[in-house]
Amino acid sequence: MEFETVIGLEVHAQLLTETKIFCNCSTKFGGAPNSHACPVCLGMPGVLPVLNKKVVEFAMKMALATNCLINKSCSYARKNYFYPDLPKGYQISQYAYPLAEHGHVFLDVDGVQKKIGITRIHMEEDAGKLIHDEHNPFSYVDLNRTGVPLIEIVSEPDMRSPEEAADYLKRLHEILVYLEICDGNMEEGSFRCDANVSIRPRGQKEFGTRAELKNMNSFRNVQRALEYEVKRQQYLVENGGKVVQETRLWDDAQSVTNSMRSKEEAHDYRYFPDPDLVPVIVDDTWVEKIAKELPELPLAKRERFVKDYQIPAYDAGVLTVDKALAGYFEDVVKLCSSPKAASNWVMGDVLKFLNEEKRDIRNCPISATALAEMICLIEDGTISGKMAKDIVEEMYKTGKDPKAIIAEKGMVQITDEGALSIAIQKIMDANPNQLKDYRGGKDKLFGFFVGQVMKATQGKANPQLVNDLLKKMLAG
Amino acid sequence: MELNQLTIHELQGKIKSGKTSAVQIAESVFKRIDAVEKQVHAYIRLMKEEALAAAKKADDDIKKGNIKQLTGIPIALKDIVCTKGITTTCGSHILHNFVPPYNATVVEKLSAAGAVFVGKANMDEFAMGSSTETSYFGVTRNPWDLERIPGGSSGGSAAAVAADECIASIGSDTGGSIRQPAALCGIVGLKPTYGRVSRFGLVAFASSLDQIGPFTKDVEDCAIMMNVLAGYDSRESTSVQAEVPDYRQFVGRDIKGWKIGIPKEYFIEGIDPEVSSAIKKAISVIEKSGGQCIDISLPHTQYCLAVYYIIAPAEASSNLARYDGVKYGFRTAEARDLLDMYKKTRTQGFGAEVKRRIMIGTYALSAGYYDAYYKKASQVRALIKRDFEEALKKCDIILTPTTPTPAFKIGEKTDNPLQMYLSDIFTISTNLAGIPGISVPCGFTASGLPIGMQFLAGHFEEGKLIQIASAYEKNAKIEKRRPQL
Ligand SMILES: [Zn+2]
Question: Considering the entire predicted model, what is its pTM?
Fold first, then answer.
C-alpha cells in the first residue's frame, strides 16, 4: 500500500525583548541560577502580572510577516499543571482568543510554490529549568527562563514529507531572525519544535491517528525523527498494528522515538481566562505602525536579487538565508558592479572559509569593500582568477586588502605582450620535439605549452593573452 | 474614654492639638490587647516592637508639623496582605512561615500616610469561610458574645476594631468578607469597586472578585481610610485609572431626593425577624432623612450563590496551585518522590474547606465540564451585573440587610458548608457585579448582637455610599455601645 505522510508543526520561539513578558527581569541567557528572577516571575503569593507591550509588538511582527490576520482583541488564559519549573502552577498563555490566525508561508517544493497554512500565533511565558543532581536525590530549579516571552506558531497539517517539514521550519526560522525578534538558537532552546505526524493510504481524505514528537533540537533531528516516525507508523500498519495517539520523544543517540505518554495520560490543562490580565486591544493604527517597521523579508529579498542582480534563484536562495550575508553581498555588488562574480565569490570561497571555522558573516575578516576591490582587479585584468584564489585566502587569513597582498608578493599579472613573446620563444626553443609534433597535428600539446608558460611566469601571465600569443607563435 | 476607643478623626484632633502622642495611642492599644486578646484572638501575629518604633517616628513627624492622614493611627492588617519581612500566613498551615520580600501596595500607602501597624489579623484560611473558623491558627471570637463567631473571612480585622484592639483595620472581600463581619461585629466595613484599591500584594483567593477595603468605627473614618487606599496602581493590570475624590467631603451631606431601591429578592423567608425589623426601622430613618424608597427587582439574584461557588473556587483552584512545597511555605517531611511531595504537602498544608473549594474549582474547569459550569457561570454573572446596571438606572442606592442573621454560634455551621455559604447570600452579588458596598450598624438584637445594613452603589460611587451611610448614621442615632469583655 502506498502511504501519504501528514505533518503539522508547533514552533516555540523565544522573543528577544529586554525584559520578561510580565515583569521587569532580564531575559538574558546564562545568568547564575535564579539571578534573573523577582517575586512576580517566582510566583510568590499576592503578586500580579503586568504585560510587556514589546512582546505584543514582536508577536505582531511575526504575524504580519506570515500573512496572519491580527485579532482586534486577544486575551490571556491560564494553562494549569504542576511542575517544579512552573512556579505559579499555571502558565500564562493564550487559548480561545489568540493574537493572530489564518496565516501562511510559501515553500519551494520541486520548483513549485507550496502554501503552508498557519493556524494561529499566540503569546505565552516560558517555564524554568530543572537541574538534576547526579550524585544526590535532588533536583534544583532555575527560574531565570521563567517568564521569558514566547510565541507559539501552529501550522496546519499541510506538510507531506519530513523534507517539507524541515524546509518549513527553516523558513520560519529565517523570518524570525530577519525580524530580529528571535535569535533562533535551537541548541539553547530559543527556537523549539514539536511535530504532529500521521500517515494515511494515498487518496484517503481522513487523517490517520497522529503521534506528537518532542525533543528534537536541530533541523536535522526534526527531519530524522519524522523519517523514523513515518517508517514506524508504516511498519505498524503494514503488519496489522494500529497507530495510537500519544506523545513520543526523539532519542538522538538511538535514533528512535519512544512513547512518553498516551492520550489517556494526557494532561487536562483546565484552561480558563486569566482574571489578572485584561484583553489586549490591537487597533489598526498599532498594526500599521508595526507593519511600517517590518524589514524586507527573505522571500521578497530573494525575488529582488533574481530580478535586480540577474543572479540564479539558487544563488539568491543561498545569499538570503542570513540577512547579514545578504547585506554583505549587496555591499560587494554596490562597489564592483558585477553581481554574478560577487555571488560566486561570496557563496564559494568566503562561505567556505567561514563554514570551516563556524564563523558568522558579521565577523568575516574580508570586508565587503576588500572583496569588491579584488573582484575589480580581476575585471580590469590586474590579476587572474587563479591568482585571486590565492589572494582571497590570504585576505581571509590576514585581513589585509588585496592590493597590499599583490604588492607584497609581486603578484601582478603579466600582460606585457613583448615580455610574454620572449618567454614563449624561449619555451619553443627548449622543446623542439614537442613543437614539431604539434605542428604535425598533435593539437593536444597546446595545453603542454600553456602549462610551460604559466610555470615560467609563476602563474602571473594573463591566461587569455597566453592563449592568443601561443596560437599565433606555435603556428609559425 | 481610653485613647484606643476613639476614632481616627477624634485621635487626629487630639494629636493636632498636642493632647496626646502616637506612642501614647499605641500603648493604649497594646494595653487593651494585653487585656482582651486572649479572649478574642483577633490576631495571628502582633507587631508591638515595630508599632512602638513607628509610633516614635510618628511623634517625630508630629513635632515637625508633618501630620499626614493617618499619622500615629494604629491599624490592623488582615494576614492576607503581604508585609515585607513579616510573616503573611493567610491563615494557613501551608504559609505559616512565609515571609514576603515585598509589601502590598495598600501597606505602602498606609505606611506613607503615617499609619502604625498593630499586627496581622486572623482570618479564614485563604479567606475561604464566613466565620474565621477555618483559620489554621484557631477561631476568633465575637467581642459581643465570645461563644459566637465574628463573621469572616476578615473576622480578626472586624473583631480587633470592635474590641478596640486597634483604631481601624484592613480586610479583603471576595463574597462579603468585609461587610458580613462588619455587620456581625457592629462596625463599618466597605468593599470598594473592583479596580478601585490595588490588589498587588493581596494573596489571591478569586482574582476577579477580591477587593481590599477598610473596617472602621464610624463612617467618617471609612472616608479617611478610603482617601488613603483608593487609586490606580501600575503593578495591577485590573486597576482602574478613575479619578479619586476626597471621600471626606461626602460625610455629613444630606440625601434629600435620593431614590433608594429595595430589591424584593433580598427580603426573603429565612431572614431573622430581629434583622428584618431592624432593617424596616432603618428604612424609615432613610425616608425621614429625605430618601425615597422604591421597590426594585434584581431578577437573577437566585443564581448568585451558585455562580459564585463556581467562579470563586475555579479561580482559587488555579491561584492556590503555587503552594506546592517547592519554593516557600510548608513542605511535607516525608515525600518519596515529586508527586508524593505535592500530594502530601497539599494534603497536610491545606485545611478541609480550602481542599473542598480546590476540588470544586478543579472539577468546574475540567475538560467536558467547563462549558456546563465555568462558562455558564460566567454568562450568568454578566446577567447579574446587568441586573444591577438596570436597577441603578432607577435609583441612586440599593439597600439590603448585610446578613440574614446575627452572629451564629461557634461550631454551629462548620459541619454544614451550604448553611455556612448562605450567610453571604446578600453580599456575594456585589462582588460578581464588581460594584461597591458598605455595611453600617443598624441596631442590636434583644440579646445584644449587632445587626448590619448594606448599601450598594454603581461602579466608583463609593462617595455616594459614604454620603448615605453618614446621613443614616447621623439620623438613626443608634445608641453607642461597647462590647463587655
Ligand atoms: Zn521577574
Answer: 0.91
